[in-house]
Amino acid sequence: MPGAGEIVHASDVWEEPAGGGAVVAAQLARLAGGCDFFTALGDDELCDRSVGRLRELEVEAHVARGGHTRRAWVHVDAEGERTITVLGDKLPARGPLPLAEYDAVFFVAGDAAALRSAREARFLAATSRELPTLLEAGVPLDLLVGSATDPGERYESGLDARVVVRTDGERGGEADGRSYDAAPLPGPVADTYGAGDSFAAALCFALARGDALDDALALAARAGAAVITGRGPYERQLGRDEL
């Protein structure tokens, strides 16, 4: 990031539909062959472009439109680390939603009614980033994933969660109180954006299909490592041919 009074010049610029929900949906689509994404976007051209790009990623977006689509600047430095500046208010998906027939749902953002709808699916994962909504809805979770180092994702107790995972980047993390290792990178670091959400999505996919926790963590670690070797969140997400 620029220091006080400093001007820096970007060596490369690109745009993608982003945020945790889009990254999770795209990773699930890569592994499962498709994904429905219930979200909220503005009634604007950015929404149209986002929906079109998500469709290219095998994600079918079901969009509640209104207001203005939220934007963000993601600054990636020479070491691949990202810093994010968010512009605009979050537009949360609101329930109830038709989720009862799904094999797995990953709750990234929304209101309590949307989360209660998600509990009707066979397997429900969620991010601890949305802890106030998780506490309000009070539904049991099959998987809760959050960062061990991000204050906005800190979780200690209070939820009925069958598996709790705290990620810690290249140091691996902790799953139900025991540590697991990160996967080796399959190439040089390009961009860390999307690694945590891709890890979480792959873990949800593996546990929902019946993998043992250790096997699911190994797959998720590979998914997180793969993303880091590509530009942006979607260039190197793990695919079905790599399972």
The CATH homologous superfamily corresponds to Ribokinase
The fraction of residues in strands falls at 15-25%
* Order of helix and strand elements from N to C terminus: HEHEEEEHEHEEEEHH
Question: Distance N terminus to C terminus?
Answer: 37 Å
Class, according to the CATH hierarchy? Alpha Beta
CATH topology: UDP-N-acetylmuramoyl-L-alanine:D-glutamate ligase
**What is the total tally of β strands?**
10
Query: Which CATH-level-2 architecture?
Result: 3-Layer(aba) Sandwich
Which bin fits the share of residues in helices?
25-40%
Give the low-confidence spans: none
> Which structural category do the helix and sheet elements fall into?
alpha/beta
Q: Averaging pLDDT over every residue, what do you get?
A: 95
Major β-sheet profile: 6 strands, mixed
The overall number of domains is 1
Radius of gyration: 17 Å
* Side-by-side strand order of the widest sheet: 5-6-7-8-9-10
What's the helix count?
Answer: 6
Based on Cα principal axes, name the global outline: globular
List the helices and strands and how they pair.
Elements: H1 20-32, E1 35-41, H2 45-56, E2 59-65, E3 71-76, E4 82-87, E5 104-107, H3 112-118, E6 123-127, H4 131-137, E7 143-147, E8 164-167, E9 173-175, E10 178-180, H5 195-208, H6 213-228
Parallel strand pairs: 1-2, 5-6, 6-7, 7-8
Antiparallel strand pairs: 3-4, 8-9, 9-10
